[in-house]
Amino acid sequence: MRGRFYILHYRPNELDTARLGVVAAKKLAKRANVRNLVKRIAREVFRRQREAVPCMDLVVRLHAPVAKATRAELNLDLHALLQRLPRS
Question: Which domains, and CATH codes, for the chain?
């Protein structure tokens, strides 16, 4: 599923908890510190919502340039994507 800045790929797993992978391409975030910030924000949002996320393997991928994005916008985008995950 797609948000404003992130794409979230998901697949159910057989574990007791959800797992997360994060990808931030150089094409969309030129500087290493920006890529690291994007990944750090994604991991923190996931950490805070981990109990509410169904048992799935998640891959969060950047799909829009984040040069003008604020941290709050990145947080809200990923938070909204995690809320849209199918619950089963």
Answer: 6-83 (3.30.230.10)
